[in-house]
Fold this sequence. Notes:
With 275 residues, this protein is mainly α. It has one domain (2-269). It contains eleven helices and no strands. The protein has helices spanning 2-5, 16-33, 51-59, 62-73, 76-107, 112-117, 137-151, 163-166, 176-201, 215-235, 241-273. α7 (137-151) packs antiparallel against α9 (176-201). The longest helix has 33 residues, at 241-273. The N and C termini lie far apart (61 Å).
Amino acid sequence: IKLMTKQILVPDHIDPILFRIAPPLLLIPAVMSFVTIPFSETLVARDINLGLLMIFAFASINVLGILLGGWGSNNKYAVIAAARGVSQNVAYEIPMLITVITMVMITHTLNLNEIVRQQAGGIFNWYIFRWSANPLMLVSFLIFFTCSMAETNRAPFDLGEAESELVAGYHTEYSGMGFGLFFMGEYANIVIGCSLATLLFLGGWQCPFGLWPGVHWFLIKLYLLIFTVILIRWTFPRTTIYGLLNLSWKILIPFALFNLILTGAMLKIWPLIFP
């Protein structure tokens, strides 16, 4: 409410077109992604067969909002922060998408509702614990959750907003609701990332005991993941840009690729061992 009532100051040195379209480019795709998120089997705005693909298509637009916000501000701190944000998003989108491809190979579908239905029957049918599909499912979950935190610029991955180095990052020149739209987009992306982790690995709205599935179970799991994000933010210090990129390119991507190859091998070999 405070940001909505504050005056929006537009500096003279900015690019007016890029400066104004950047905040909506971060928020609108995040809001549109909620269309395909199933909170329960029937509580979904649109049950789309390619829902998972659609969410990641919208997520790729966020990079444009960061880039245009920094470049349009015509400010050295904003440009550096935008370059950091884009490199961070590109680096962590790769292992995240590889992990999603691994899950699609296991589930044979891009429909989020169908993925959750396959996890019915109790906690050991959730994909995070279904080691018969892949013994490294827990690693897949950790890679996905880490990448979702980095994609949403949460600490310790918030190098695009490092106040001690870059003032306020790529939204240094923004005020009022322009500044608010950036933060609304970031927090909406946190909810989407935790929702996807819940749907893909934690059974979505399925009950841990195999009974009474419903939206309340989805919300409980979602809140626990968001609480974990907040806890990590207040526990770990901010990393360096080199450590951030090394984590993705040297650790997460090789692990994600190994996991993908292992999954493909198990899908071919497992039916031969247990016909």
